[in-house]
Design a protein that fits this description.
Helix content is 39%, strand content 14%. It is an alpha/beta fold. The protein has a seven-stranded mixed sheet with strand order 1-7-6-5-4-2-3, sandwiched between helices. It has a five-stranded mixed sheet with strand order 8-9-12-11-10, covered by helices on one side. Strand 4, helix 7 and strand 5 form a beta-alpha-beta unit. Helix 2 runs antiparallel to helix 3 and helix 12 crosses helix 13. The termini are far apart. The protein binds pyridoxal-5'-phosphate (PLP).
């Protein structure tokens, strides 16, 4: 009986279509394939330690900080989705950022976008400057600026597209080509797009970073980060040592939730993108709106780059409310379907007045509200902002 089921298993494996649709791979790639009880849903291995083999040798697992089945499974599934060779999960998106910077050494320099995620900039300024790691900022929508910045030695180019909160799109392939001329590796923070809208590795990036907290987790209940390496090179091995030795790792339960999030990610994202497109179109020519920053609108300055490099324009946008900062804050406060809260990428829609959470030197306009479009019916989302705008109309 056992032999027969093993044979059957082998048959299924060898006859599995190799080029399955990404949606199918998302569902089956993130499953732990339990061999113990044949459970359909993945089990969670809470054990921190694992028994050695009878001869004293170490089996598949030793100690959970080094590796555990749930983390392995999540890393494998994300790695496949991004088209990389190795992935590493961390306790948060910023722990993943920190691991990358810990791979550098005193005297090294990183080139980051001028509107990089503010946590990265604060980390470089407050923490890594003390270890002699420098950085410079360029407008990545102007490839010439990167070319100029690379005249000075640099060890890493950091990209983020779409950017936060100005929704700038950078031409990932073009920037990778420039960095390659100088043999400088490129990392792309792909948190906002996810591998289903944009794959930085085939575009030339060496590393991809995720705040798993956002779209991958997808329900505002997991704090986690991850890195995917295009090749298992020396940098990748250094990341592995930092994951093991510095210990900023997620728990098995979080890895289980994140793997589950990966299974529904393509479908959730597609629904959110469709709503976002309609939401953006509705408010693009609204009298109470100064402008809508959304890559799907032909008015977006990098609309063509987004159309070429992304499958869909995403579910994030910023809307500049006509009038003062106070007016924008009042609109945010009057919304009832949208929650006024930070973060993004979840089933529920969120709105955020970015300027008031950013550091004092923030260049974000005071009348800007950032929207994360979730999975509610878009009619309700449109009606909510309509009522918010009319509530503050003078
Ligand atoms: C949220 C976010 C991060 C940080 O991730 P955490 O999980 O909050 O630590 C990094 N990059 C981007 C683009 C983000 O949106």
């Amino acid at each position: 009986m056992l032999a027969r089921s093993a044979m059957l298993q082998e048959h299924v494996q060898s006859h599995r279509p190799t080029l399955m649709h990404p949606d199918t791979r998302a569902v089956h790639g993130a499953d732990l394939h339990d061999t113990n009880a044949s459970a359909v849903a993945s089990p969670i291995y809470l054990s921190t330690t694992f028994k050695r083999e009878p001869d004293g040798s170490i089996g598949s697992y030793l100690y959970s900080r080094y590796a555990n089945p749930n983390r392995d499974q999540f890393e494998k599934a994300l790695c496949e989705a991004e088209g990389g060779q190795r992935a590493y999960a961390f306790a948060s998106g910023l722990a993943a950022c920190s691991a990358v910077l810990q791979c550098l050494q005193s005297g090294d320099r990183v080139i980051i976008p001028d509107d990089a995620y503010y946590g990265l900039r604060s980390m470089l300024t407050e923490i890594f400057s003390r270890f002699g790691i420098g950085f410079s900022m360029v407008d990545m929508t102007k490839p010439l600026q990167l070319r100029e910045a690379l005249q000075e030695q640099a060890q890493l180019v950091w990209l983020e597209s779409p950017s936060n909160p100005l929704i700038k799109i950078t031409d990932i392939a073009a920037l990778c080509a420039i960095a390659k001329e100088h043999a400088v590796p490129v990392l792309c923070d792909n948190t906002w797009a996810t591998p289903y809208l944009q794959q930085p590795i085939p575009l030339g990036c060496d590393m991809v970073l995720h705040s798993v907290t956002k779209y991958i987790g997808g329900h505002s209940d997991v704090l986690m980060g991850a890195l995917v390496c295009a090749t298992d090179d020396e940098f990748s091995q250094r990341l592995r040592r930092i994951q093991m030795l510095c210990g900023a790792v997620p728990s098995p339960f979080e890895c289980y939730l994140a793997a589950r999030g990966l299974q529904t990610l393509p479908t959730r994202l597609r629904a959110a993108c469709r709503s976002a497109e309609r939401f953006a179109q509705h408010f693009a020519s609204h009298p109470d709106v100064e402008s809508v920053l959304y890559p799907g609108l032909p008015s977006h300055p990098q609309h063509n780059i987004a159309a070429a490099q992304m499958h869909m324009p995403g579910a994030m946008m910023s809307i500049m409310i006509r009038g003062s900062e106070e007016r924008a804050l009042a609109v945010a406060a009057s919304l009832q379907v949208f929650s006024h809260a930070t973060s993004l990428g979840s089933v529920e829609s969120l709105v955020e007045h970015r300027k008031s959470v950013e550091p004092a030197d923030s260049r974000t306009p005071g009348n800007l509200l950032r929207f994360s479009i979730g999975l509610e019916a878009v009619e309700d989302l449109i009606a909510d902002l309509e009522q918010g705008l009319s509530a503050v109309r003078s």
